[in-house]
Amino acid sequence: MQTITTVAELRHTLEKCRRADQLVGFVPTMGYLHDGHLALIAASQAKCDVTVVSIFVNPTQFGRNEDLSSYPRDFLRDQELCRGQGVAILFAPGAHEVYPSYFETFVEPGDLAKPLCGAFRPGHFRGVATVVCKLFNMVQPDVAFFGQKDFQQCAVVRRMAIDLNLPIEIVTVPTVREQDGLAMSSRNRYLSEEERHQALAISRGLAAALNEFCSGERRVEKLIAVAKKHLETVDTLQYLELVDGDTLKTADSPLRRPAALCAAAYVGSTRLIDNVILTLPTR
Ligand code: AMP
């Protein structure tokens, strides 16, 4: 595995792969890797000849009062994990390599970035779309892999790839969970033992609603109510919304189209997100 920190070296190395007609897969991350990230890497390894993983804690997607400076980091461990997965290139640029002085050009997503997390994290998806677009231009992958855990991020990135004619296939990988159901997240490490237990309410609430849906319940209010009962124990429920799977607008009741039940909640001072996809059975 090659660890690369500059765009020039990355381009030079990938040039050889392209000349050899190798399919390049890309997994962008903010590091502190867990099994969720490793599932994206495995998906890339299965589909592509070469996998590039990036580790970059992107300052432009953090709000003023968010956890940019305390975001968990363990580069050496991440490097070992990537090596163990057979990653070809680990791209870990510094902040100045990605955002040179006088940087002032951003990618501004549209309506998909407005609800859910977008409503509580102003500018977050502008930062995400900008850095993903920049990383796409640096790596120029054939396929890029994103986790369903960040459902709205997947929607924004897919839209951006279409709108900006980026010749990249976007693959969404299902959410990887701890044995008890908690969605894996780098931020889980902030949780105390008690908070870790409290956080389970999120996945349990979403799973309960999914269960109702699978038993035939199609009323939006009812599905939300089922989830909400569990979520009453979190410190602050930021949102719990059932949205259309494509537009991310509030889903019509009864459900007739694929939808997503999405939640964001604070457990102590840690903000966690999760979702389940409600897909109607095909007849
Ligand atoms: P992050 O490092 O949190 O920015 O995440 C990098 C990528 O990993 C994103 O595409 C996330 O959606 C994905 N990811 C994070 N957690 C999980 C998980 N539990 N299961 C699947 N993918 C995940």
Summed up, what is this model?
Helix content is 38%, strand content 19%. The protein is an alpha/beta fold.
Q: How would you characterize this protein structure?
A:
- It is a single chain.
- With 283 residues, this protein is an alpha/beta fold.
- The protein folds into two domains: 172 residues, Rossmann fold (3-Layer(aba) Sandwich); 90 residues, Pantoate--beta-alanine Ligase, Chain: A,domain 2.
- It contains nine helices and nine strands.
- The strands form two sheets. A six-stranded parallel beta sheet has the order 1-4-3-2-5-6, sandwiched between helices. The chain has a three-stranded antiparallel beta sheet with strand order 7-8-9.
- Strand 8 and strand 9 form a beta hairpin.
- Helix 6 crosses helix 7 and helix 8 runs antiparallel to helix 9.
- The protein is globular, with a radius of gyration of 19 Å.
- The structure holds adenosine monophosphate.
- The site of adenosine monophosphate has 17 residues, from helix 2 and strand 5.
